[in-house]
Structures are given as structure tokens and as C-alpha cells.
Amino acid sequence: xxxxxxxxDVQFLKELLGEERVFVGEAIxxxxxxxxxxxxxxxxxxxxxxxxxxxxxxxxxxAYQEGIPVVARGSGTGLVGASVPIQxxxxxxxxxxNRIKELDENNxxxxxxxxxxxxxxxxxxxxRDFFYPPDPGEKTATIAGNINTNAGGMRxxxxxxxxxxxxxxxxxxxxxxxxxxxGKVVKNSSGYSIKDLICGSEGxxxxxxxxxxxxxPLPKTVISLLVPFPNLDMAIGTVPKIIKSKAAPVAIxxxxxxxxxAAEEFLDKKFPDNSSDAYLLLSFDGNTKEEVEKSYEKVxxxxxxxxxxxxxxxxxxxxxxxxxxxxxxxLEAVKASTTEMDECDVCVPRDKVAQFITYTxxxxxxxxxxxxxxxxxxxxxxxxxxxxxxxxxxxxKEKLSAVFACMYRRARELxxxxxxxxxxxxxxxxxxxxxxxxxxxxxxxxxxxAFDPKNILNPGKVCQ
Amino acid sequence: xxxxxxxxDVQFLKELLGEERVFVGEAIxxxxxxxxxxxxxxxxxxxxxxxxxxxxxxxxxxAYQEGIPVVARGSGTGLVGASVPIQxxxxxxxxxxNRIKELDENNxxxxxxxxxxxxxxxxxxxxRDFFYPPDPGEKTATIAGNINTNAGGMRxxxxxxxxxxxxxxxxxxxxxxxxxxxGKVVKNSSGYSIKDLICGSEGxxxxxxxxxxxxxPLPKTVISLLVPFPNLDMAIGTVPKIIKSKAAPVAIxxxxxxxxxAAEEFLDKKFPDNSSDAYLLLSFDGNTKEEVEKSYEKVxxxxxxxxxxxxxxxxxxxxxxxxxxxxxxxLEAVKASTTEMDECDVCVPRDKVAQFITYTxxxxxxxxxxxxxxxxxxxxxxxxxxxxxxxxxxxxKEKLSAVFACMYRRARELxxxxxxxxxxxxxxxxxxxxxxxxxxxxxxxxxxxAFDPKNILNPGKVCQ
Lengths: 464, 464
Description:
Two copies of one chain form a homodimer. By secondary structure, chain A is of the alpha+beta class. Chain A has four domains: 7-95, Uridine Diphospho-n-acetylenolpyruvylglucosamine Reductase, domain 2, CATH 3.30.43; 100-217, Uridine Diphospho-n-acetylenolpyruvylglucosamine Reductase, domain 3 (2-Layer Sandwich), CATH 3.30.465.10; 221-331, Alpha-Beta Plaits (2-Layer Sandwich), CATH 3.30.70.2190; 338-424, 2-Layer Sandwich (Alpha-Beta Plaits), CATH 3.30.70. Chain A contains 15 helices and 18 strands. In chain A, the strands form five sheets. A five-stranded antiparallel beta sheet of chain A has the order 5-6-10-8-9. Chain A has a four-stranded mixed beta sheet with strand order 1-2-4-3, covered by helices on one side. In chain A, strands 13-14-12-15 form a four-stranded antiparallel beta sheet, with helices on both faces. In chain A, helix 1 runs antiparallel to helix 2 (53-66), helix 8 crosses helix 11 (330-336) and helix 12 (353-367) runs antiparallel to helix 13 (393-413). The longest helix of chain A is centred in the last third of the chain and has 21 residues, at 393-413. Chain A is globular. Chains A and B meet through helix 6, strand 11, helix 7, helix 9 and helix 15 of A and helix 6, strand 11, helix 7, helix 9 and helix 15 of B. Chains A, B: Residues 40-218 form the FAD-binding PCMH-type domain. Chains A, B: Keywords: FAD, Flavoprotein, Oxidoreductase.
């Protein structure tokens, strides 16, 4: 169906980019065959490092004309196989397009290349007293990866998700045309919002080559609360009450003892407390300590009324650091505790979180498999991991598939969606196809065709 | 090209809806032939009042099969002719689908039918201590109209635009299929964001039959500042400095003396001050008076340093009411002061507002025509009105077209967009076509085709 890369194609790429940025065959590292948690892998036929929008455009023009599949890749921290070149072809490695181009203090925007990693953006803006709110756990992800999954992260409860902070994009279309969508403007009602469609499109509609992000002033004070509960039901049951109380926490995370212990072992560092079965971790921000205290006092009281064993207030950097670095290591820690794992990233309405988590405990018993979960209780986005441990290949695949089928069905019953922030990519397609009816899927396919009539950009992903 | 409505079609509609909700020929009020500021008008061949999603779906199925154009209409407060049935056909009047269906306090959402008007939503939620931040000037617009233009309003500076508050939609596609997109979930990365595409699509991609809106806790205190300046340049020049100071005002509006005088006359009510040439009107909110004071004190000081003549603080309801009701009447007041007018709704980066407004003053002299402007200085979205006054039809059309061409060109030069919140509809198409290159327009047309292959839903609008 697709054209295989031949000597002329390689020649074209080498002439365009120079020898040293074109990798073929064994020169391509195995790393580029998979992402963080794929289960699927394939190497591209050729991997190129691009440095400019114009290069991306020239390569897409060539690929479009020749019918060669192309996949764009950032840090490869995805969790659904979205950047795996399942049809081979060309992989565009965008990690070297990693400059911060402009901080515009008059318009509160930051313009960056696609390969800048999240922790650099955070550092850059915070040093200058600005704030980029999206805060996914994986700090080495590139900004374009975040845009393409519409990553949410911890602070979504108060601040929303990546899409809400993308003001403008430069995008190279599958046919090589360069499009500027949005800009530094705050409002835009000038034709269909292509910007919002690119956000969350997982590299299937266009290649992001520049992004203009919205910044906020940096809140002057952030305070975290670590709240132990006797059990998870009580912890999670408290969350809708916090929301209903009209407090405005920045984040509400939940975690269980086992995950904390795994993180302690993984980091070789003690968590401030690990004696309880379940915890809520909350943060609050504002411009004065008094203002922040006012907003968390009510919540602390409410937690205690709901049966919390204590409320630890972390207002020193050190203590906050120890809590949040543990939280940041959960994924890696759980991963290190087993042989293999796969994740379910559903998002359910916030008052359904407890029901969903209880159900995963039932599954753990029914299927005799370890299931670990943590996540964003405050926004209903749950990360549930099924662990392989000692299972052989066949038993693992069978069990995983049965457990996933149950979890995604339950999420649907609870009016949830198949992915909160990791995306669909390749791995979660079957569950998305179950979620939507035919009319919905047809529309998604039609949208893909509107951008990519030859289906060369990241084929076989999302809705295909 | 399109099928004309015949007796069978009318019969079908009457059987579906009953005689009393189907209007044909002279039974259709002239009101339905235009919107608020169109310049274009045409009556539909048949106008129907719908009450349920199922009715909308049945009508679309019929229209799709027969090839009849359909336009959906709310309150008709649009400003670009988006709801004018320029091809005749069926008009769906959605104003009677006006129920507030559910306030979900656990998930902070409000689910409404499309015809609920904005002021009802504001009243309903504020009485219950919740807050729906989007606040366009036209309070009698329907919520579906707001969604379809992605209306912004005054509070966008701090709170963003309508799209940011739409969590889920029920949409009837041109072929009659009913789609549920999004929901009560806070995060969603499950396929292309159809929800975000529908927002701002001006009734051309689907018909919104239900919306689930995100609410916030109601801020307990709002304080407004009215700041007179010796001239408009000084007033507007202060805005980027306010943004840069990292204050977080809810709104920054600018207004000139002439517009205030027109509003006073129109409302027969005095504005708190009308002695200065130009004003900024700011508002700040928060949960305590101290917190709000803290945030505006710095801004008040900054305004005085920049040459403001005074700073009037309005913390009583009465005084705020008098200021904001005048602001709310600007459009009507300017309209009442002339024979006819047309508006330019550009959005430019915030630090370009002064340049754009200065340019409109140059145009006023160069073309010897009255131009009035006011708007959202804090977000760069400007409403500039060209007034016909005594010009005859031909001279008016010629002058308007020349002045508009200049203004939209200038907006493009300043990296602005053709519409901030009123949309493109029918009237602003030429300016959008000038803004985007061919690849962009092709993509917009392809997206339209992805939803509406027979081009029956609101044909001839946005990108056609």
C-alpha cells in the first residue's frame, strides 16, 4: 500500500538535511521503535533529525508525493503507541527543535519550538515569575507531545488542560503546506478552530512545528496538604464533597499505601507518612499566605469531618519536594515493581471516581491479578495499572484483555471516556471503537481525511 | 441546486410537530429574515419551532434525504448574518428548547437546552452561588448562539471564552444522527475534539441540542474601577502595562466620551463621570475584600502614574450597576445615534490595541465618516462601528467597503484575526478569505464536507 523507502528517498533526505541527520537501518537506535509503554514496536525505515519548519515541510511534500508514511516523534514518553511507526516509513525526530523562541511579557505568551521539554518550560517561566499551569507527571515529555495528547496533569482541577493554554500553532500539513493557526490573540472566532482540533490529534492531522502558549502570573504561594485516611473509600468519597464545598484546590491526587511504598523503594527516600492505607494530596495556591490558608482551612476541616486521620500541611519547599517527587515517581515505581504492565487512563465524572476504584478492587480479586491505581481524583482522571508479575505471555495477554474490557465497560457505564490524557494512539483503539457509535467513528475518519486524504501521516492511529 | 419546499415537506413537518409549530409564507414574521446587524435578509420557506432533539433529528434526516437547506436560529442577536437562511429552506427555531435541565453540584456542571438565554443562566447559577464566567454584552443571546460563535465577552481577560466552559454537547449532524461529545468529564483525550470544532462553527457543522457547561464557585467580591484619562492614547497605552504588572483583572474595557454620552442619552441615565475624553473600566474579583483590594491597588497606582486623572472605585451594587448597564447599552446606543451601521470585530494582540485604535481615528478623518469604538482592551478584542448617518445607499456601501478593507488589512498587519467573537457568518467572509491562504481555506472547506457532504446545513456561511 505505502511506498517503501528507496535509495532515492534517502538521497533526497541527505541532500536536504546533510548526512549526519539521516539514519538508516542499523544506525537507528532501537529506542525509536517504541514508546514508554507500548507493547507494540517497529523501527522506521529512516529516521531524520529536523531543525526547521521548512525542513519538515520539504519532507512532507516529498512523502506526500511519493506516498510514504511519516511519524513525528518527540521524547517518546507516550503510553499508547501513538509515535510507533507501525507502517515503517520516515520518522521525524523533533527533539532538536528545542528552542524557546520568545517570551512576550506584554501579551503573556511564550513561543516555543516543538521539542522543548516540559521541565524546561516550567523552569524558564518560573524564573521569570510566570506560570505555565499544565503539569503532567512526565516532565521530560516535549511540549508538542503534550499538545498532541492534550495532556492534563495534576493542576487541571483549577487550571484546565494543555489545550486551554495553546493560543497559536504553526502546523505542517500532510501535503507539506505550512499553516499558522491562532496567534497571540486572546479571542478568535474566525472559522473552525483548527488549533483545537490539532490539540489531542496525536500526530495524525499535522505536525506541530511551533506553539504559542498562554502564561499566567506565577502565584506567590503554594501549600500542599497530605491527608491520611483509614481506607481508600473514605479518601475518595471525600473528593466530591471538597468540590461541592466550592473550595478551589489546584490539585487533588489520591494514592494508596502500596504505591507509596513502591515509590519509597524506587527513590530510596522516605515519604512524610506511610502508616495509613490511603491518602489525598491536595494543593492550593494564591498570592498571599492568608488567602491560601483561608481556602485550605475549610477543606482540612471537611477532611477531618469525613474521617481523615490527620492533615499534614506542607508549606516548606523541602517537604513539598519530598511529597511531590514521590508523586512524580509513582509510574516508574509501579513499573519497577513488576515485569510488565499496561495502563487504563479513563476519565469519569468526579463523583464516580469511588465507584470506579472500588470496581478495580473487585477485578483484582476476581482475576487474581495485581492492579495499582493513583491519579487525579480531583478531575476524575484515573491511572489504573494492571501488572503482569509472573504470568506467562499467553496468560498475561488473556488476563489483561479481559480486565481491560471490564474496566472500559465500567467507565462507559459511569459516563466516562476512554482516555483522559494519554490518548488513543494504537493501543487504545479497540476501547474507543466500543465507546463511540458508527456515526461518531465515521465523523472522526472524515476529519482525518479532510487533513490527510492520502493517509500518510501517522497511519493506523486514533480512528483508523 | 437545492430542493424547494413543497406540499409534501410541509405535510411531513406538520405531522411531526403539529400544525401550530409550522409556519409557512406570510405566517413567518419578517424578524426571521435577518439578525441584529445583517444588511442581508431572506425569509425561510418554512419556519418550525422544535421542542426535542428527536424532532431536530427527524427533520434533518428528511432534509438530508431531500436535499433541503436548513438553518438553526436562536434569539437572532448575531451580528454577521450567520442565521440568515440565504438559500431559503427550513429554519429551525430553537428558542422554545429553553429548559435548564440539571445543576450537578458534585461535578460543577449545568446542563441546558440550546435556547436558554444567557441572562437566565447567569441568574440561575448566581442565585445558587455558582458562576458561569462568559459574559458577552448581549444577554438575550441563547447559549447555543454563544457556543456557535464562541462568544467571549468582558471577562475573557481572566476567565477565557465560551469554548473553555463547554464540557459536553449533544449535536444533531446534518444527516440526522445524534452525537454526544464530551460530557461531565474534566479531561478528555479520546479522539479528535469534535466539541471544540462545534464551538465557533456558526451552525454549519451540526445543531447543538444540549450543552453541559462548566461552572465555578461564585467569587464573593467584585469591585470595579472607572479610570478617566485625558485622552484615549493614554488610556489604551496603560493596558499592556497592567497586563505586564501581573495583576489579574477580570475585565478591562475602554470607552470614549462620545460613546458614554450616547449611552446616557439612550438610557436617560447619568454615568458616574463623563467629563474626560477616555476611560478604562476594570473589574477585579476574589473571595475577600482584602484580597481584591490587594490586587487592584497596584493597578490603580499604575494608572495614576500613567496619567489617569482619577480612579473611581465602585464597590456598591448601585454604582457598579450604573457603570455596567451603561457599558451594556453601548451597542444599542451607538446604533440609535445613526441611521445604519456595520461593525468590525477584530482581535489583535493586546499590545497592538493602541495602534489599531489610532488607525481608526486616521480613517475617520481620511474618509470623513463617523467611527465609534469600544471594547475589550484587556483581551485585544475591539468593536469598531462605522456609522452611515446621512450617506445615501451607494456612497455608504462604497465608503463602508473601503473603510473595512483598510481596517481588516491593518488588523492582519498587527497579527490580529478577522473576528474575536462575532464570527464570520455571511458578512465577514471576504475578510476571512483575505486573511487565510488557499491551503487554510481548503482545509476549512474539507472540514465542512467531513460533517456535511451534501452541504445542506447553513450553506454559504463561514468558508463557503
